[in-house]
Amino acid sequence: MTRFGVEPTADPSAMICMDPPRYGFAGLPPNEHVTAFRVPVSAFAIADAHRRQTYHKDTRIHAWHHLPTPAEEQ
Fold first, then answer.
1. Is the dihedral angle over the CA atoms 18, 24, 25, 29 positive or is it negative?
2. What predicted TM-score, i.e. pTM, was given to this entire model?
3. What is the reported pLDDT for 50?
4. What InterPro entries does this protein's entry cite (predicted)?
């Protein structure tokens, strides 16, 4: 998760890796709130990248994959 700006030793990272996980992010000090937000977002990003490589490799059948970029719209 370091590529998302979250160290594995940060409190929110350690909390979610416990068995069973602790989810009391709201009880963390205010300076940890951004890190606490990044932990689940980074987990979802990793899972989504895996899903795309595993299940949707070379298939882009949904319409939103073919939307024009802002440069193409001009």
1. negative
2. 0.59
3. 85
4. DUF5958
Terminal alpha carbon distance of the chain: 38
Judge whether 14 lies within some domain.
Answer: yes
For 55, 56, 64, the CA distances from 60, given in Å and listed in that order, are 11, 7, 9
Q: Are 13 and 7 in contact (CB under 8 A)?
A: yes
Let me know if residue 69 belongs to a domain.
no
Assess contact for 43 and 17: CB atoms under 8 A.
no
Q: Has residue 73 been placed in a domain?
A: no
Distance CA 52, CA 46 (A): 10
User: What confidence tier does 40 reach under pLDDT thresholds 50, 70, 90?
Assistant: confident
Lowest model confidence (mean pLDDT) among 27-31, 34-38, 70-74: 70-74
Residue 28: Cβ within 10 Å count: 15
